[in-house]
Design brief:
It is a single chain. The protein folds into 2 domains: about 1-235, Rossmann fold (3-Layer(aba) Sandwich), CATH 3.40.50; about 235-270, no CATH class. It contains 11 helices and 10 strands. It has helices at about 45-50, 75, 95-105, 110-125, 140-150, 170-180, 195-200, 215-220, 225-230, 235-245, 255-270, and strands at about 1-10, 20-30, 30-35, 60-65, 65, 80-85, 160, 185-190, 205-210, 210-215.
C-alpha cells in the first residue's frame, strides 16, 4: 500500500515566492525515505502540506490512499506525526511524562491506554526514568527524543522528522540515530545531511523546490552531479571509493564504514 502520494504539487508563499514546483513522489507503507535538499529547498513547507497544515495551490496529496484536503485533514492528521526541527517549539509541559501524554490525552484516549502509550514511547526512545524530569533541563538530544516520544505516543502510521539531527553533538546524534533505526513505521526524514539520511533511511528524494531525482544511495552516489545541483556533499566513504574507481581501482560502492571495511578485507586477503 502507498502511505504517501504527492502528485504535481506546487505552492507559493503569500509574498509570491515559489516554495515547491510540480513535485511528485510516492512512499510505500513501512518505507523510510529521506527528503534531501539544501536550506530553503522547501522541505519544511512540504511537511506542512503533508500534515494538512497548508494545502497545495496545484496538485494533490494522498495519505493512506485518501486525498488530503480541508475536509479530510482533521481525521488524516490522526494517522501522522510531525517532529519539528527545534524541540523547544514542540515540548512545553513541566514534566517529560506530561509532555509525552499531551497528545494521547487530547485524542481522548482512555487513561489506561494513555499510560501504556507513554510507557512504550519512553521505552522506545531510550527515556525510561525520565518521566518526572523537567524538559528544559535536558540536553538538546534528549529534548529531541522527548519530542519523538510525544509523537509516538499517539501511535501514528506515518512519522515526519524535520532535520532531526540538526545542532546535535556527536553523541546526541548517535543516540538519536539509534532510536530512529529502532522504530517500525513509515518515516520521512527531511535533511540536508546526506550521511544522516544514509544511516536512517533506505532511499532519498532530492529536491530543490522541484524534484531533482530519487533513488537508493548507491544510485544517487553514482550520479554526483545530482547532489551537486542540490548543494549536497557525497559522504566520505562513497566519495573515497568513487575516486578509486576513477583511478581504475574498482572495489564496489559501499555506503557505510562496515561495508567498506569488508570490501577492503576481501581485497587485501586476495592479494596476500
Amino acid at each position: 500500500m502507498t502511505s504517501v502520494s504527492v502528485r504535481d504539487v506546487s505552492y507559493r508563499y503569500e509574498d509570491g515566492t515559489l516554495a515547491l514546483d510540480s513535485l511528485s513522489f510516492d512512499v510505500a507503507e513501512g518505507e523510510r525515505v529521506a527528503i534531501l535538499g539544501p536550506n530553503g529547498a522547501g522541505k519544511s513547507t512540504l511537511f506542512e502540506l503533508l500534515m494538512g497544515l497548508q494545502f497545495p495551490q496545484k496538485g494533490s496529496i494522498q495519505i493512506m490512499g485518501e486525498e488530503l484536503n480541508s475536509k479530510s485533514a482533521p481525521r488524516l492528521r490522526r494517522l501522522m506525526g510531525l517532529v519539528f526541527q527545534d524541540p523547544d517549539d514542540q515540548i512545553f509541559m513541566p514534566r517529560v511524562w506530561d509532555d509525552v501524554a499531551f497528545g494521547p490525552i487530547n485524542m481522548g484516549l482512555p487513561e489506561g491506554v494513555v499510560r501504556e502509550n507513554v510507557r512504550k514511547a519512553l521505552e522506545s526512545t531510550g527515556l525510561v526514568g525520565f518521566d518526572q524530569r523537567a524538559p528544559h533541563r535536558l540536553s538538546r538530544g534528549e529534548k529531541k527524543r522527548v519530542a519523538i516520544a510525544g509523537v509516538l505516543a499517539m501511535e501514528p502510521k506515518i512519522v515526519f522528522l524535520d532535520e532531526p539531527t540538526a545542532e546535535l553533538d556527536p553523541k546526541g546524534k548517535r543516540d538519536l540515530i539509534r532510536v530512529l533505526n529502532g522504530l517500525h513505521t513509515t518515516m520521512l526524514v527531511a535533511t540536508h545531511e546526506v550521511q544522516t539520511a544514509l544511516e536512517i533511511t533506505d532511499r532519498a528524494v532530492v529536491i530543490d523546490r522541484t524534484k531533482l531525482g530519487e533513488g537508493t544511495y548507491p544510485e544517487l552516489f553514482s550520479n554526483p552531479h545530482l547532489l551537486e545541483r542540490a548543494s549536497l556533499d557525497v559522504p566520505p566513504i562513497p566519495k573515497l571509493f568513487e575516486l578509486l574507481q576513477n583511478d581504475g581501482i574498482s572495489l564496489g560502492k559501499p555506503t557505510s564504514v562496515d561495508e567498506a571495511a569488508e570490501i577492503l578485507r576481501k581485497a587485501l586477503s586476495r592479494r596476500s
